[in-house]
Amino acid sequence: MYPRIHNTSFDCHDTYARSGSWPAVTGYVRHGDDAPGGPEAALPATPHVFFPPVCEAGTVKSRARVRLEPAVRTRAREAERVLGAGATERAGKTIEEEHP
Questions:
Q1: What is the biggest distance separating any 2 CA atoms in the chain, rounded to whole angstroms?
Q2: Conformation bin of residue 92: beta by default, left when phi > 0, alpha when psi is -120 to 50
Q3: Are 42 and 54 in contact (CB under 8 A)?
């Protein structure tokens, strides 16, 4: 048996703002205690999506890549929906081109 992903975390300075578009993308609901200026933000679902704060100023941009697989829509329609919710598009090759 293989392990399951328990959570994904995105280190950030403004936890509430950083977590902003994820409910629209995933359909997950924000944790009831989340508020602007709060100590952390979370989308309690499976897998859990967590936005912990970082105190130090970053000198390099932190990145996280999450590959989503559409459940009902075509890939193009899902990409349009997710980009509309605030995601950014990665330049370059598609996953299929990188991993034939």
A1: 44
A2: left
A3: no
User: How many residues does the structure list for the chain?
Assistant: 100
Q: What separation in angstroms does the CA of 96 have from each of 14, 32, 73?
A: 34, 38, 18
Tokens of 54: 């970082």
Q: Quick one: average pLDDT of 30-41?
A: 90
pLDDT value at residue 3? 59
Torsion sign, CA atoms 5, 8, 32, 38: positive
| pLDDT digit string, tens, across residues 52-92 | 888 776 656 666 767 677 778 888 888 888 888 887 776 65
The pLDDT assigned to 95 comes to 54
Q: What is the dihedral of CA 86, 10, 89, 95, to 10 degrees?
A: -140
Which is nearest to 73 in space by CA: 83, 61, 59?
83
Residues 6 or more apart whose CB falls under 8 angstroms from that of 51 comprise 9, 10, 12, 15, 16, 18, 19, 40, 41, 42
